[in-house]
């Protein structure tokens, strides 16, 4: 059998196409990349990352795309990541994946000159209460979330009226993992969050994500919507600079930005592991990614 050039990674829930709109979109997103790679002559397949029967040394590379169960199975994923990194090339690399998994990376980017949302890291085992932290930081309305997370897992909007109600879950979480506390960003609700795709350090396309009425989360899991968006030159420069400020240049990245409470462009998150890239909105971008992958592995 001819060795594989590239395996596109998903999780087992999305291996097959489906009449479910969400699952169909996931399948279609990955398929744009698979077909673009095949059109470039690369032997390509799409598999679940935890496939027990696949020999990972039989492919030149694996590309993380929709491995969206990794944060629910982090210990298992971490061991698999260590093992497979010794057998083939990972895109993006194991080093940058492990860096990006933990939102402490935001502080690294801040030190490298990238403007981020105000952020206070609450390390595992911290003993101060939410009320004490808010009083110390002089923040009245905040968002609390884990340093290792995805799909808005354990993400809570806090204010002086509900701090006590969240204290029990906070104590449970902080005993086992580090958390982030950030001032609530009103413009994410009012104006939305911009996702900008950057391949090989160069901007390709963008979308605007908006929360549904009454919510603060822009993810479509919570009713958020996605719209076409043309970024300003300032926003493009910011996104490319954010990617270049990483510990190494990732092959692909999604840079989520917003206008902070002071009116400045700020980084919300930098997604380097398995970001949704909205190829269904911009199919030509899948070709650009495929070309970058081919250049990397051949």
SSE order and pairing:
Blueprint: E1 6-10, H1 21-39, E2 44-48, E3 61-66, H2 74-84, E4 89-91, H3 94-101, H4 105-111, E5 120-122, H5 130-137, E6 141-146, E7 156-159, H6 163-174, E8 179-183, H7 186-190, E9 193-199, E10 202-210, E11 225-228, H8 233-244, E12 252-259, E13 265-271, H9 283-297
Helix pairs in contact: 1-9
Q: Provide the helix percentage.
A: 25-40%
Look at the structure and give the mean pLDDT.
Answer: 92
Order of helices and strands: EHEEHEHHEHEEHEHEEEHEEH
How far is the N terminus from the C terminus?
19 Å
Main beta sheet strand tally, sense and closure: 5 strands, antiparallel
Number of strands: 13
Return Rg in Å.
Answer: 19 Å
**Assembly type:** single chain
Biggest β-sheet: strands ordered side by side in the sheet: 11-10-9-12-13
Give the overall shape, derived from the CA principal axes: globular
Given the structure, what is the number of helices?
9
Provide the low-confidence segments as ranges.
Answer: none
Structural classification: alpha+beta
Q: What proportion strand?
A: 15-25%
